[in-house]
Hints:
Elements: E1 10-15, E2 18-23, H1 29-36, H2 41-61, H3 68-89
Antiparallel strand pairs: 1-2
Helix pairs in contact: 2-3
Amino acid sequence: MEKRNLDGVYFRMKRHGKWDNVCFSDLTEKEMHEVMENRNNEWFISMIEILTNVAKDMGNVFNDDPNQDALKETCVRLGYAIRGIGDFSGLAKE
């Protein structure tokens, strides 16, 4: 997996027998679940805010990009990631 370092939230992960600082958005789905385990609601809210800001920044950077389909797909995937964090944490706005 390519390290893109998009969100600026890093975790120490052991990969291939070595410890490495890995950005949340570069974690595998399994690793994401591992780092989300036993977190409190404040942590989840903070992550959602950070990822939302990343999405806004990406939208601003790619606003004039002629490849709108790729941008839309990226936004959809990020939206699913944010929703997944909310679902995992049990957070819901009523």
